[in-house]
Amino acid sequence: MVTPVARDKELSKALFGSSHMHAVIVAISDIDSDDFSAPQIMELTGLAASSVHTLITRLLRAGLIAKSGGLPGERTILYRREETNALEALARLGVRVAT
């Protein structure tokens, strides 16, 4: 199990310009399936929809994730990891393995 250290929000702010970007990156890296949605990230992080959508847009622009379609009959957009190694490396910043 991976637990953010106390300084995670400050580290995230310093590295990414957002207190919550690291939490979103960790959530994306922790999802087992190839595809994920903003509601999944919201559930995993406890962040508001507006925050998650803003950060997902930044990750899209950076090329770390891409749109992969949508759910039939729903407005939910699915995303997939594009730069898996980069996301995993970023997710490990500032986290420790709980013992």
Automatic annotation (TrEMBL):
Domain of life: Bacteria
GO MF annotations, alphabetized: DNA binding
SUPFAM superfamilies membership: Winged helix' DNA-binding domain
Key word DNA-binding present: yes
UniProt keyword annotations, A-Z: DNA-binding
Name of the protein: DNA-binding MarR family transcriptional regulator
Organism: Microbacterium invictum
